[in-house]
Specification:
The chain is α/β, with parallel strands linked by helices and about 375 residues long. It folds into 2 domains: about 180 residues, Rossmann fold, CATH 3.40.50; about 180 residues, RecF/RecN/SMC, N-terminal domain (Glutathione S-transferase Yfyf (Class Pi), Chain A, domain 2). About 40% of the residues lie in helices and about 25% in strands. The longest helix is centred in the middle third of the chain and has 37 residues. The chain is globular, with a radius of gyration of 22 Å. It starts with a strand and ends in a 5-residue tail after the last strand.
């Protein structure tokens, strides 16, 4: 389900842009600050209803207007029309085929997107939240009931933490929320485990293509130790939870431990090796998505030559080509971006040049 049409109005320096992207490879090049990443930002907003660069609307809206609008058409045979509007006051309107929708989750089902950018490369060294997001993205797309359980879990944690912050709360007062939390946590854990197993298989299929990295191992950690009773843990941690004002153990503390040859990956891998492993993790996500849904994810790859050397960029290009996915990739020089793809893939490509917020389509190789 590729993005076949994109219209952007007033997103940062993109006053008005209309594109007809290629269903496979889209090379976007131009000087730094020209608006390349803003194009990827627009696609991401059509998928999630929000930017991957800012949580606030005001900084992403062009300075001389009060709103931005995005329009996209998804699909080749059956077309889904998506519209997103954001105002400086922080209001967001989302429409799919003329219907107003309130759930970003529904939006993501129509245009599943994975981004590989500077923030993605913190997956190994960054906080557990980043690795939970990776796992939950998978669970959301391959486990139909995951999102409803996850949403109820967030509500339950919010209510329990609100009571904890009031102080002087007894065990019996918390018990209804604890019971609900135990049930939801077990369900979330099961969804994550079922998603994690095929993810490991997909990553292992790429491992031979990671020369010099070593034996990579991923271990899912659910947020409390194996064999421990979660209900008993909540009771045992009640005093500390009251002191700190939040729930300290549970699925909201889940993580993926990444090791290489038995050592913490962040400690033994060079920065370049970390980046190629992260690229493999993101590719493996798309592989699992394809296996379970029969559909393809759309990849947004931002300024790759600045993150990976030529050999590793070609390696990623080979992986993405093998997925037959739609890709939007940005960089300063067209030649460096084209060079990472197999010759056969370049037959299915479009090239766009971005300059001062204006976008023009060019012939492949004409720079």
């Amino acid at each position: 389900m590729p993005l076949t049409r994109l219209i952007v109005d007033n997103l940062r320096n993109l006053k008005h842009v209309e594109l007809k992207p290629h269903p496979r490879l889209n090379v976007i090049y131009g000087a730094n600050g020209s608006g390349k990443t803003s194009l990827l930002e627009a696609v991401n907003m059509l998928s999630l209803g929000r930017s991957f660069r800012s949580h606030r609307s005001k900084p992403i809206i062009n300075y001389d207007t009060d709103r931005l609008t995005l329009y996209g058409e998804v699909g080749l045979e059956r077309v889904t029309r998506i519209g997103v509007e954001k105002t400086r006051q922080g209001d967001t309107s989302i429409r799919v085929d003329g219907r107003n929708i309130l759930s970003a989750a529904e939006l993501a089902e129509h245009l599943p997107v994975l981004a590989l950018n500077a923030d993605s490369f913190e997956l190994i060294t960054g906080s557990p939240k980043l690795r939970r997001q990776l796992l939950d993205w998978l669970a959301f797309h391959v486990e139909p009931s995951f999102y409803g359980v996850w949403r109820n879990l967030q509500h339950c944690l919010k209510q329990r933490n609100s009571l904890l912050r009031r102080g002087r709360i007894s065990g019996p007062e918390l018990r209804p929320w604890d019971q609900q939390l135990v049930t939801l946590s077990a369900a979330i854990d099961e969804h994550r485990r079922r998603s994690f197993s095929p993810f490991l298989d997909a990553l292992n299929s790429l491992e031979d293509l990671l020369p010099g990295v070593g034996e990579i191992n991923l271990e899912y950690r659910r947020g409390w130790k194996r064999g421990e009773d979660y209900q008993e843990l909540l009771e045992a941690h009640l005093e500390q939870d009251l002191l700190r004002g939040f729930t300290q153990v549970g699925p909201h503390r889940a993580d993926i431990k990444i090791t290489v040859n038995g050592e913490n990956a962040a400690d033994v891998l060079s920065r370049g090796q970390q980046k190629v492993v992260v690229a493999a993790l993101v590719v493996a996500q798309g592989m699992v998505f394809n296996q379970h849904t029969g559909k393809q994810v759309l990849y947004l790859v931002d300024d790759l030559p600045a993150e990976l050397d030529q050999d590793r960029s070609r390696q990623l290009g080979g992986w993405l080509s093998g997925l037959n996915a739609q890709v939007f990739i940005t960089g300063v020089e067209q030649g460096a971006l084209i060079g990472m793809w197999p010759e056969t893939e370049l037959q299915n490509a479009a090239v766009f040049h971005v300059e001062h917020g204006k976008v023009s389509q060019e012939t492949l190789g004409a720079e």
